Here is the input.
Amino acid sequence: MSTVVTHSAVAIAARVADTIDAIFATIEGWRELLETRLAAGLELAAAELDPLVESFALPAVTNDTLLTGAGFVAAPGALSDVRWHLAWWLRGTDAPRRLATIDDPSHEQFRDYTALEWWRIPARSGARHLTGPYVDYLCTDDYAVTITTPVRLGDDMVGLVGIDALVDRLERELLPILRAAGGDASLVNTSGRIVTSTDGSREPGSILRLEGLADAVATSRASGSVVPLPGGASVLACGDTSLTLVIR
Here is the structure.
């Protein structure tokens, strides 16, 4: 692995991290707001929480940002006035709209969101998580990534705040950064699934199959160093975004 490739990987990974960290900072601000208001006595009820969530989620999908969805998802049974609840707003063609949901478990179209990755992993780990790319049948019917982080009241997780970003919008920001590598460059998630790539044959959501990739991703995430692969590629974690850069 050449010094040029190493320097290029470090610079590109840092720029990717800067882009994603801006989204992380937004979500962390929402989490802190909700936790502060709840600790100060705001009732854990949809009627009280929804206006507060709307105050930050609606502007987030109104302005020209990477975000296409934003809001709060309640832990089942956490709210006093409804058991299952999403307060989620979507970017629209003309204007943002609130996501219509079915919160009655007896309804044939009800969906238990606690079984989905964007809920399941942060609920288990207690930390933010980037899910995807996946086809978001719940909101957009398009390839998206979802970033979620737990909201707590004392020791209890009462829900999640998060965002959706369409992959094609992320690509507009990330592909120019990746092209600076001068070769094939891909971003993959912790499962080796491609978020975006300068190689047009590597579709978002597909698995990048390279010998030793899984171990290299884990090593780079733990050490923060560039890890070479047997085939000549270089692997480097993009900060703590959970994304990894693969260049060859």
